[in-house]
Amino acid sequence: MINILDLTLEELKNWMKLNGEKEFRAKQIIDWVYKETWEFEKMSNIPKATIDKIKQEFFIGIPEIIEMYKSEDGNTGKYLLKFNDGNIIETVLMKYSYGNSICVSTQVGCRMGCKFCASTLGGVVRNLTSGEIIGEILAVQKSINERISNVVLMGSGEPFDNFENVIKFLELVNCSYGLNIGQRHITVSTCGLVPKIKEFADKKLQVTLAISLHAPNDHMRKELMPIANKYSIQEIMDACKYYINATNKRITFEYALVSGANDNIECAKELAKLLKGMLCHVNLIPVNEIKENVFRKSTAKRIDEFNSILKSYGIESTVRKEMGADINAACGQLRRKYLDEKSGV
Ligand code: SAH
Questions:
Q1: For the domain bounded by 64-343, which CATH number is listed?
Q2: Helix, strand or coil, per DSSP, at residue 310
Q3: Best probe residue, ligand 1, of 106, 160, 207, 285 (max atoms within 8 Å of C-beta)
Q4: N or C: which end of the chain has fewer CB within 10 A?
């Protein structure tokens, strides 16, 4: 069975043609799906014979919301979603003054092994398809009855470890017949898979690329992120310059501040020197503390100092506002908690 959300309009039209149906049925069906009718029988302008044929081949892969937590201020919602094979993922909704933003997962689990991250604790289970990532958005959008206008690929998983599906997702989410979310409203975050950064640059999309850097040198980065053993910071910087040349887009560098690990003044200076002259922005994130590791967040004073040093070197930087800490909204935490509870840990 095929998840109908995995198909572009063109692909569904082709299927119609090959199966002796009228091509325009494809658009009608896709319109129903994006208007949140998720049972083929309820698509009232489609003949029953066509529906019967479609049902033999397709299903509408909207994940089931099994739990939903709202932060106290009401601005963050964390969703546990279940796909039809039983796999659980999490998705976070953030309400901003400029609109609703969703943080989607791209894999069930993750195999990158970053030391501070909860998503990677059980490794990767499987990739999500493009349609499943679309399904995350549709499920949440329906539950709030409001449009979602921004997407960040910063949930569980490494987007560039699931490259083809993520690229197709970016195409689908952008389509005028679908969710119609502009590329400039989308951010893809990677831990730094260098060849894929270049491949991504060659696609010349207008989405924002975020790089999880988290350290100013290889030695320190290796302590936090195993991927640093494969690609050096120099290689990442070269790939970033290639990306900037190809797209003319500013890169975001994410830097999670971990007390006593990567937050001293020397680190800030080293980071500033590394990024000097680059078209970029640094996002400082007080590390989200998880029970499975010893990493603790830097003090507010240290975060301010770090930020000021970057600015004094002319590097644009902001401290990410912490949202949803009261509902385990950090990457992978909620799924972890759910799995632990089920297995009685
Ligand atoms: N795999 C991708 C995207 C998913 S994680 C990546 O590595 O970029 C999204 C961001 O959250 C990354 O910058 C990641 O390093 C960061 N992150 C993960 N766990 C965190 C934690 N406990 N505290 C703060 N940031 C965290």
A1: 3.20.20.70
A2: helix
A3: 285
A4: C
Catalytic choice (114, 191, 267, 331):
331
Mean pLDDT confidence for 148-154: 97
Per residue in 315-337, pLDDT (tens digit) is 999 998 776 666 665 656 777 77
Is residue 316 part of the annotated active site? The answer reads no
pLDDT for the residue numbered 338: 74
Residue 271 CA to residue 47 CA, distance in Å, equals 62
Tell me which fold the domain 2-59 belongs to.
Answer: DNA polymerase; domain 1 (1.10.150)
Q: The pTM is what? A: 0.95
Cβ-count burial 137-174 (b if 16+ within 10 Å, e if not): bbbbbeeeeeebbbbbbbbbbbbbbbbebbbbbbebbb
- Which run of H or E residues covers position 277? none
Confidence tier at 291 by pLDDT (50, 70, 90): confident
User: From atom 5 of ligand 1, which residue's Cα is the shortest distance away?
Assistant: 154
Segments making up each domain of the chain, as ranges: 2-59, 64-343
Judge whether residue 344 has pLDDT over 70. Answer: no
Ligand 1, atom nearest to 210 Cα: 8
Q: Is residue 331 flagged as an active site residue?
A: yes
Contact residues of ligand 1, CB 6 A cut-off: 112, 114, 116-117, 154, 158, 189-191, 212, 254, 256, 285, 287-288, 290, 330-331
d(CA 207, CA 248): 11
pLDDT of residue 325: 65
